[in-house]
């Protein structure tokens, strides 16, 4: 049976065609103040919803009484309340596997760029300051052989561990909800407490999902435990780290630098003190942002939604308890 789908993100033509072959699609390239009322009106008789980067909370869902499934073009689900969706009988699907390697590339790029001061020294050249052979004022710090601590050994954490261990000879420590025997066997990773990781690692990379438990998990107390001169990298969500505490740790020299793809508020304010620090590499949340990966995510999300609406969802389901209530 053909249903109505509301698409709230611009996607490639072939992805749109996938959806249109099976259902009626109403498309919004994005949601803003000018079209939000129209978006809400279209939800009234929609069975499926697909998109990204828009908060889908009770105020939105109350306008969607027939909604059966939401497919987010992302791995993160912090724009949703899965418990509320389950109460409403709405299945939530995401795209975890397709972006793993690309996001891990971003994480390791931040490790290298921060350690070797790549952005700062590229600006040094562009500004015409390279007038003689460089001295210690342009030196960075080694990555190879240093200890990497990974906070959250999920798919992305594991991909970073592989790059670190096999590519750069780095001992890997990790903190996770539970040990990961596969990572320990493949990469020699060692499970430890968060305190031990922070006290021992030269580089700390944050890859945990944002949940009520991980919100603010790296604050002033945790930053104070990090080794003097350590580097902090965050490719997860900005709210996992207390930015005010991070700024203090950078300004007082406790940390050598930080590589940040995410911030507490996005886009980050142009006057943020983080952006005034040469030892901070700041990116505009590009974790999975390559042509290939973003297209793959959209295809995955579209297929997830088609499967859910036909009663065949078997993968990438965030709240599987709802599946028994969907049509078969």
Question: What can you see in these coordinates?
Answer:
This protein is an alpha/beta fold. The chain has two domains: 4-96 and 291-325, NAD(P)-binding Rossmann-like Domain (Rossmann fold, 3-Layer(aba) Sandwich); 100-282, 3-Layer(aba) Sandwich (Rossmann fold), CATH 3.40.50.720. It has twelve helices and twelve strands. It has a seven-stranded parallel sheet with strand order 8-7-6-9-10-11-12, sandwiched between helices. Strands 2-1-3-4-5 form a five-stranded parallel sheet, with helices on both faces. α1 runs parallel beside α12 (291-309). It is globular and about 70 Å long.
Write a brief caption for the model.
This protein is α/β, with parallel strands linked by helices and 328 residues long.
Write a concise keyword list for the protein shown above.
14% strand; globular; Rossmann fold; 5-stranded parallel sheet; 7-stranded parallel sheet; 328 residues; 12 helices; alpha/beta; 2 domains
